[in-house]
Write a structure and sequence with these properties.
The complex is a heterodimer.
Chain A (H helix, E strand, L loop, with lengths): L18 H18 L4 H24 L8 H17 L4 E5 L6 E6 L4 H4 L14 H13 L4 E7 L15 E7 L1 H12 L1
Antiparallel strand pairs in A: 1-2, 2-4, 3-4
Helix pairs in contact in A: 2-5
Chain B lengths: L1 E4 L5 E5 L11 H16 L7 E8 L2 E7 L5 E6 L4 H19 L4 H4 L4 H14 L2
Antiparallel strand pairs in B: 1-2, 1-5, 3-4, 4-5
Classes of the chains: A alpha+beta, B alpha+beta.
GO cellular component, one term (chain A): TRAPPII protein complex
Organism (chain A): Stentor coeruleus
Pfam families (chain A): TRAPP
């Protein structure tokens, strides 16, 4: 009797998980992290997300990019916007922008508040801890695995354009700061 | 000899698949190690994963395939068989991604035995 292993299963099959199961698991994760060290919640969530990034990268490239790697910054960010977001949330609702003054910082802005912050409420007056650091960790893991060393942080979008009403969740902006070697490599490849 | 090299240039998996006729023992690993630099140079330049034959040592060829997460698959062989080797690499790549879906994978740093069977099966199919 041959046992079926994980290698016999199809990789291209897309399965969906209900949002409730995700919220259930995520709330337990946050409670666990708070018990460990409440002040370092964001850092712990990021560290949890990093190993996921490499796996997402391999899956996306295998399934949707027919095994062609991305080697430029712009293409990689487009991969995150067009492939990673629909894979994680089934919606393509984010905008990618480059920072005005510093050319090594890119921003991914959300259009709607994301799943991690949807039901997470912070004690009034407490520091601005953003549970979307989990997603920031995933993005960072993805970029590091793809050889684009970067630091990704999730911050709340408090700036003027869309005023958030009281009680509505704030939207997040993911700041991606690439290391110098990535920019140097881009500049060198543009010369050819 | 077939080697899978992961982060920090640490070999994650090794197998001799009968692609080198004469017996040169540990020289195989040296050959692959020497070709690593060339692979690292060529990988960021091309969006293809299969890098064909990257290096030659006496009469042995080294072929390489780099996945999106920078896992390098390298094979020492003495006969040119580009299509067969490319299909072999693609098959092993799919099995690697399946193994990666295990959340405990990195911690073990070793592929399980079922993976070994799959690699041997792919070798029999594509690398005569």
């Amino acid at each position: 009797m041959k046992k079926s292993t994980i290698y016999d299963r199809n990789l291209k099959l897309r399965k969906e998980v209900s949002a409730s199961s995700f919220y259930f698991l995520f709330s337990e994760i946050i409670q666990y992290c708070i018990r460990q060290d409440i002040h370092d919640l964001e850092k712990q969530l990021e560290e949890l997300g990093i190993p996921l990034g490499a796996r997402f990268l391999e899956l996306i490239i295998l399934r949707e990019k027919s095994s062609k790697k991305e080697i430029t910054i712009v293409n990689m960010l487009m991969l995150i916007k067009n492939n990673l977001w629909p894979l994680m949330f089934n919606k393509n609702n984010c905008v990618v922008e480059q920072h005005m003054d510093q050319e090594n910082i890119y921003m991914i802005k959300e259009i709607e508040p994301n799943m991690c912050n949807q039901f997470a409420s912070l004690p009034r007056g407490q520091c601005h801890m953003n549970c979307a650091s989990f997603i920031a960790g995933i993005i960072e893991g993805l970029l590091i695995a793809a050889k684009f060393p970067a630091k990704v942080t999730a911050v709340f979008n408090d700036s003027g354009e869309d005023k958030v009403e009281e009680g509505e969740e704030k939207r997040t902006v993911y700041l991606i700061k690439f290391e110098d070697e990535v920019l140097a490599r881009e500049a060198k490849s543009k010369k050819f | 000899m077939f080697l899978i090299i992961g982060k920090n240039d640490v070999p994650m998996y090794e197998a001799s698949l009968g692609t080198v006729k004469k017996d040169i023992g540990h020289l195989n690993q040296f050959i692959i190690h020497a070709a690593l630099d060339i692979v690292d140079e060529e990988a960021p330049l091309s969006s293809n994963m299969y890098l064909r034959t990257v290096d030659k040592f006496n009469d042995l060829y080294v072929s390489a395939y780099v996945t999106a997460a920078n896992i390098r698959l390298m094979l020492v062989h003495d006969t040119k068989n580009e299509d067969g080797i490319k299909n072999f690499f693609i098959e092993v790549h799919e099995n690697i991604v399946k193994a990666m879906t295990n959340p405990l994978f990195d911690v073990f740093r070793n592929f399980p035995t079922a993976f070994d069977a799959k690699v041997k099966q792919a070798a029999k199919k594509f690398l005569i």
